[in-house]
Design a protein that fits this description.
This protein has 175 residues and is of the alpha+beta class. The protein is 45% helix and 15% strand. It has 2 domains: 116 residues, 60s Ribosomal Protein L30, Chain: A (2-Layer Sandwich), CATH 3.30.1330.120; 43 residues, no CATH class.
Length: 175
């Protein structure tokens, strides 16, 4: 449910060069389940932040990326993240499909920007590029399996069709 929200925030940030200090308010409009499952403005741990629309919106605008480091405990309590989280509200709209979201930003100078995401990045309708997949895999491996040679494994996976013995590739995944 958070992926279309995050995509909308990242798109608005890039398209309008929106820094967190220029944002007066963010409204996220989505299916009622969005509010039920993710309207959690006062999270205090990484675990809770992973299902908080307010936290996800804040880190998207503050950092311009949303990955595991942005959900770490130290990020959850950062003053700039806390300040922006307080500016995020959720509006429920039963006419909006569950996989869709509308993100509306009001800036401190009175401007309004809106992004409607109907297909999240990484879906069949909006697939990630090979470079994006490699970057995501590398980031996740660095975070969760730092001893793994991610670049070597990525190369082996791309070449798996030509591999006579896939056991060598599988062994690269086990430590």
């Amino acid at each position: 449910m958070l992926f279309p929200v995050i995509d909308g925030c990242l798109e608005l940030r890039e398209r309008h060069t929106l820094s967190s200090d220029r944002i007066a308010a963010v409204t996220v409009r989505g299916h009622p389940l969005l509010g039920i499952r993710t309207d959690r403005p006062d999270v205090t741990s990484s675990r809770a932040a992973k299902v908080s629309v307010q936290h996800s919106v804040a880190v998207a605008f503050v950092y311009g990326t949303v990955g595991l480091p942005q959900y770490a405990d130290q990020c959850v309590g950062e003053p700039v993240v806390l300040e922006l989280r307080r500016k995020v509200t959720v509006e429920e709209d039963a006419n909006i499909p569950v996989e869709t979201a509308v993100v509306i930003v009001q800036t401190t100078d009175g401007r309004r920007f809106e992004c409607h995401v109907t297909q999240s990045r990484g879906t069949m309708a909006s697939p990630m590029s090979d470079a994006e997949l490699e970057a995501k895999f590398g980031s996740l491996a660095e975070y969760g399996a730092p001893m793994l040679d991610a670049e070597r494994l990525i190369a082996a996976i791309w070449a798996v069709d030509d591999e006579q013995d896939v056991a060598r590739t599988v062994k690269m995944m086990v430590r």
